[in-house]
Amino acid sequence: MENIRPWCLSRQLWWGHRLPVWYRGEEIHVGLDAPEGDGWVQDEDVLDTWFSSALWPFATLGWPDSTPELEAFYPTNVLSTARDIIFLWVARMVMMGIEFTGDVPFAEVYVHSVIQAPDGRRMSKSLGTGIDPLDEIDKHGADGVRFGLLAMSSTQDVRYSAEKVQQGQQLANKLWNAMRFGLTMIEPSTRPEALPSAVEDYWILSRLEAARAGIAERIESYDLAHAALELYDFVYAELCDWYIEMVKPRLAEDVIEGRGELQSTLLYVLTETLALSHPIIPFVSEAIWPHLPGAEGLLAGRHAPDADPQRRDLEAEQQVRNLIDAVQAIRGWRSTAGAPAKAEVFARLKSDDLLPMSTMVERLARIEFRDSDDDPIASIPVPGGSIEITDAGEVDTAAADQRRDRQRQQIELQIERASAKLGNPGFVDKAPPAVVEAEREKVARLEAELKAL
Predict the structure, then answer these.
(1) 208-225 exposure pattern, b = at least 16 Cβ within 10 A, e = fewer
(2) What is the reported pTM?
(3) Is 29 helix (H, G, I), strand (E, B) or coil?
(4) What is the dihedral of CA 29, 35, 37, 39, to 10 degrees?
(5) I need a surface site. Which of 3, 242, 365, 451 has the fewest CB within 10 A?
(6) 202 shares a domain with 63
């Protein structure tokens, strides 16, 4: 706000607030009405559009009168705007707020992205580059579009990403199906309560707490893209792909012992996941909410608990992390080896870290551990040791090794190219931050794929 230039208040427009300035010869009068006497003529120009807009934060609250609304709500907390009107609007509101109320009108200004067409041009009716949000809502749902816009947001202008919107639609569908499955396995009299009895219960409760803390921190700092993606990772990867798959046998009808505690724990996780999802995908989460046992009122009106670091269980997280790494490694081997989904695969477990969860490794990775003196046909590195494949039916392990080597070479080449680009100061200094960050994420993803191979 330093070194600002004089502001020309008048505009030659047909519509607007007409200048309250009156002339008679060399005389000038400023006021709503002309002074007494003949010959006064009102200025024909209008006030600049941004003059009246600059009054908005307090004029809407009853100013210049000292109203209860003005006392309660001025100054406000946050203004959300794009960078193209920072001087035209934001600066003028600051000027007017200080001049007429003695205080700035807001504490923080969030400068959001301007969404460009997928090809990088501005969205324009005349250019035919506009995207009708109603069409996107018809195709992907309101929550899908909302998630997509959040996921593609940044402090830079961004290109519209149909993939991010589709990702939001997938998340809404995944959450809906997870809730539907959970509700079919939970007695209507169950009430949500964390009553963990197995390591996977302690794990999901800990990961829920981590997601709660992470998403809240992201939203507080206006890092909305990472808040959306963190929610996606928790719901999709941790809750649906792992926890629900882990507890399915324990939810079976022929397993009676501990089912009540598990149902309460599962309902607690589902309830808190809905609350966690609500700011980002509000429509689907609100639609599901009335069907949860014990749910009252609107989800939007429910007080969500703050994150509590004491609820984290790092030991359980490490145990299940070892399980997941092992299962993913075996699945990766099955894929590259071309082993059919129903093919019987026998193996030896050579890892003390996985012994407590060996039965779950067998079920999730579709293998069977057997004590055998047979020479291994493949050795898969896993946390704490290895898993040795002793019999994989008619799988051609030599051909599988060749395919894996070819994949490894291709990934190493991609990593080399991307790393060279990131090592070039000209690229890092001149490319948009979002492009540089995307390249770093690409390297991290490729390195993870290489490690899995």
Answers:
(1) bbbbbbbbbebbeebbbb
(2) 0.80
(3) strand
(4) 40
(5) 3
(6) no
